[in-house]
Amino acid sequence: MKFVEEIKALCLPDKVVICDGSVEEFQKITEMMCRNKSLIRLKREGSFYARTDPDDVARNEECVFICTDDEDDVGPTNHWVAPQEMKKRLHQLFRGCMKGRTMYVIPYSMGVIGSPMAKYGIEITDSPYVVINMHIMTRMGVAALNEIEKGAKFCLGVHSVGRPLEEGEVDVFWPCCDEKVIAHFPKTKEVWSFGSGYGGNALIGKKCFALRIASTMARDEGWMAEHMLIMGVTNPQGVKKYFAASFPSSCGKTNLAMMKSSLPGWDVTCVGDDIAWMKFDEEGVLRAINPENGFFGVAPGTSLKTNPSAMRLIEKNTIFTNVALSDDGDVWWEGMTEKPPASLTDWRGNPWTPESHTLAAHPNSRFTAPVDQCPVLDDRAFDPEGVPIEGIIFGGRRSTLQPLVVQAKNWQQGVLFGAGLTSETTAAAKGAVGQLRHDPFAMLPFCGYNMAHYFSHWLSLEKPGRKMPQIFSVNWFRKDREGKFLWPGFGENIRVIKWMFERIEEKVPAKDEAIGYLPVTLDTAVEKLLTVDRLGYLDNIQQEREYFSLFGDQMPKELMRELDEMEKGLS
Ligand code: GTP
Ligand code: SPV
Ligand code: MN
Known about the structure:
With 571 residues, the protein is an alpha+beta fold. The longest helix is centred in the middle third of the chain and has 17 residues, at 205-221. The site of manganese (II) ion has 3 residues, from loops.
């Protein structure tokens, strides 16, 4: 492969390894990392612990660039740099950046190999941590390489931690660089990522390819690449429906996707927890696949109470990053148990006790675990044709206003729900936490093109003969004056899902409000969560108007009309 030679000549690694994706390869790399202390073997079967540099702990949105010929193609919510200019900068950054390191070439597939919806990628990286994570998160190795060699198109990702090693220099445990750049080239399907080794910054198959680059492919080819979980819901009569749900980072996708239903007879099964690729088939049914092969899930808050399935998922063959380490070689994080262990080593490597005034685990600490270990994996999780989606859910983290659940009256109003998604920021991205921000479709950090064009794309999906899914919005995160959550969440969320299920079946009534349909009653629901704060909503509409004005005349008129209608209905 010529480009491998070119990248080698630019980055000057000591050695090049073409990865085969085998168990032996995984073992060899983890053993090497344990020897050089960048990984610790845990007492859990096949599991490891990694600790990052304290400055490299989350996605870095400020450093993400989309490089297109025309600035208008990326729109006001993305950072734009002209492709030639960015290439020049990248060549400077990457020149000699892998000195003293091994360059790994990772061929991989997003989606079941051979599925009509699968797409291929090659990630070139100097981070062994990235290689072992890609082993879990994607279908990597020989089979993917075969498809690429047979002529399948692929997304090329070049990644470096940006810390060359001089002769004889001893490596740090988590190499990275203050200067970070994550540059996307949709036209040539290339991603260049420099300076960070963590999560979405470095595992290029995930946000960079499966969302940013894939969203531009989806726009061009008439499908959807979304920041969504996919779950199956079965009612006591054995009827099953699939839902896709879009919540911003660290707002509940993994938990909903694996939820242990609190309602007897109702069951949830998991297809995916973060990304959905969806396409209408010839019968007009929306089909969805999970392009990933692993979960990169938030650790804090995960417990036998909140998410017992995730606890079983991570019993073995899991990589833990930035959680706390227990004295007996296991892991712990805030929320895992009611009482913390008497002594721990925290995510920074310092001794920790319950008296410490710091967090033992970083709020964005994560587990990387294989999809097929999920105890509630859906029986069609690997169906190459995808599962049929009947409901789409948008949800944010909002301590006020947004009711527990609302159903859109039609597709357009549903698109407005997505476009108007607003949520409090979380530790998944660098920056302040708890600040309300617009995050349309939970895609603000992940849409690879002009968000206004993305809204139009969503509107254009509604066509005669298509079975359009019902659209809902939810909010599990309303708080009372003391800052306590008003809704129990987790397994109790099934009550809301049940209402949606029965609305799709047209079996339950609803209150007809200007903002959409609301439940008449919902057993055990807090009444306050199901009332419409009219004045609050009118104010919210003003803020949405202001936000949408950012997109100027690119903003689809239909959505503005939908907003006008809602305002009229509330006045
Ligand atoms: P990303 O992987 O960053 O995209 O996050 P995610 O959307 O998958 O979020 P996840 O399910 O990991 O949840 C993030 C945090 O929110 C965790 O600490 C959870 O414990 C918490 N959480 C999830 N669901 C609920 C809920 O229904 N109620 C409450 N109160 N908290 C929840
Ligand atoms: C998110 O931030 O939405 C994640 C984690 O799923 S990361 O892979 O780091 O993007
Ligand atoms: Mn995510």
